[in-house]
Amino acid sequence: MEDYAIGQSILVKPDFSFQQIASTLEKLGWQWTGDDDEEFARSLVRDEPEFSSWTWQGQKPILIYSFNPIAKLRVLDVATLPPALRGQLAQHLPLLQDNDIEDYLFDSEPRNRMLGLWAMQETERVDLCPQAHRLAFDTHPQVSELSRQVETRLEKMQEARESLMITLVQLAQVAEPVIRELNNPITTAALKPTRDDLIKLFDPALVDALIPEIEDAFRRPLLANPGIDYPNLTVSAVNGGLLRWSNEFSRKFPQGYRNISGWMQPQHIWLSWNWHNDKGGAVNYDGLVWVNQRWVWIPKVFRMVSNAIRASANANKGTKPYGNAPTTLQ
User: Fold this and answer.
1) How far apart are alpha carbons 247 and 195 in whole angstroms?
2) How far apart are CA 134 and CA 67, in angstroms?
3) Residue 165 main-chain phi, psi, to 5 deg
4) How far is 184 from 189, CA to CA, in rounded Å?
């Protein structure tokens, strides 16, 4: 699977034990944050803690593990990991694939059907809601009860997505007058982010390294001037949280945003836009964001934040931000 297509959660195959997962992660450069006595003492299954976490060489991002002992569902929360690190995990760990989840939903064993239901909920497989509805009439009481819970939760997820889409479309429309003024250097100079803006938008630990990037970018006027050949404007909006995986919102943004999304505060809404003509030509821009009750513009912000991540990593133990993982931050 392409790195950028990996979602917020990856599911490790049930028979691959916690010790095997921990050993694999250690070899890849992850540092376990747990305590042997404490975590294993709380586990219902011997040597299988229900929760654990790792840091990347002692720094962000953080990898979170959870284990459902009933169905042996092993989940790695990779929402804050860049695609390169997700791809590295996918290469070295045996993962449940989409077709595996679908097969479990038709398995003869109730435990496996429950595993399929929990898995589809964890990966937000709204497309499988009809299967959850089918299993609501399962002869096994635990399966039928769980399926009703999963179906309800996935329906609420879908409703929330639809509501969010309306909000994002409305904000994109509100921003159009601002975007049309970005060919004016007086306007763009006023959109320079302050230190407080950066603290609100990104991981505060990056701010000191990010400020020089911002200062360098604003040394000369920033302009978004497509020219008269591109009269039509299309604006897309997304919040930082949605940039963490491939979806109908994040796909309208440069892939570089996916690489830094783990260091972005999830609630703030970012804009990308393109000026285009009827012949198929287009000019793309991005980086407008609403923060502290005003608009701020940081074009190609993913390049600046990537540089800040590297600078911060070099300042802490001299390690690379992604170790031996393939870098895709350029």
Assistant:
1) 31
2) 26
3) -60, -40
4) 9
DSSP labels for 106-163? T-SSHHHHHHHHHHHHHTT-GGGHHHHHHHTT-SSHHHHHHHHHHHHHHHHHHHHHHH
- Do the bridges between strand 73-77 and strand 232-239 make them parallel or antiparallel, or are there none, so unpaired? unpaired
> What is the token pair recorded at 176?
């159009």
CA dist 314 to 33, 275, 323, Å? 21, 39, 11
The gap from C-alpha 14 to its chain's centroid, in whole angstroms, comes to: 24
Domain boundaries, given as residue ranges, for the chain = 3-159, 180-315
User: Considering only CA atoms, which of 76, 2, 78, 8 is closest in space to residue 247?
Assistant: 8
Lookup: tokens for 239: 């919040």
What gap in Å lies between CA 47 and CA 295, rounded to an integer? 51
Phi, psi of 227 (to 5 degrees): 90, 170
State pTM to two decimals.
Answer: 0.87
pLDDT 10s per residue in the chain (330 long)? 689 999 999 999 999 999 999 999 999 999 999 765 565 556 667 779 999 999 998 888 999 999 999 999 999 999 999 999 999 999 999 999 999 999 999 999 999 999 999 999 999 999 999 999 999 999 999 999 999 999 999 999 999 999 999 999 999 999 999 999 999 999 999 999 999 999 999 999 999 999 999 999 999 989 999 999 999 999 999 999 999 999 999 999 999 999 999 999 999 999 999 999 999 999 999 999 999 999 999 999 999 999 999 988 887 765 555 544 433 332
